[in-house]
Amino acid sequence: MAPQLVNGTVADRPRFEVWPGNPVATLWGTMVGKKVVMAATGVVLIGFVIAHCVGKEAADRAFDAAACIGCGACVAACPNAASMLFTAAKVTHLNALPQGQPERDERTLNMVAAMRSEAFGSCSNHGKCEAVCPKGIPLEFIAGLNRDVIRAAFRPRREPLVVHGAPLQPAHDDA
Ligand code: SF4
Fold first, then answer.
1. From residue 124, how far is each of 93, 95, 135, 156, 171 by CA, in Å?
2. What is the distance in A from the centroid of ligand 1 to the CA of 115?
3. From atom 3 of ligand 1, which residue's Cα is the shortest distance away?
4. Fewer C-beta within 10 Å: the chain N or C terminus?
């Protein structure tokens, strides 16, 4: 037998309540509840967008650092013969990415120790390296490298870091 329509609805359709004791379902049944759910989803969406933007910033930074071709023009132009722009670019390339975090401190200290063991000078902010770099590696990467060295040196850890070679004293021409 065909179901009867009463006021535009099926009269004999059995009515099921989904989780009758569920407070979320009860809340969703009210106008205030719908607004609360919409506000919560909005907050989640904004959080997702912010997290996505931060991730893109890190990816852009790593991409910029990866542009270094190791030409050595920065070292040649520096009055201290410092290779800090080159080293900073190589360190930033991996340190900026999530994949580079597990060995970040060890890599940073080893790169700086290798730079010092080859008797390169230290940066004293002349800025000649940035001016001549054909890939536009910015001076701020050196500041980032210095921050990473401090982080690596002072961060407490369970196991001691394996650093090959002790850093030498800086060799400035104006020291
Ligand atoms: S000049 Fe620029 S591209 Fe060349 S080694 Fe230095 S940082 Fe890298």
1. 22, 23, 21, 29, 10
2. 14
3. 68
4. N
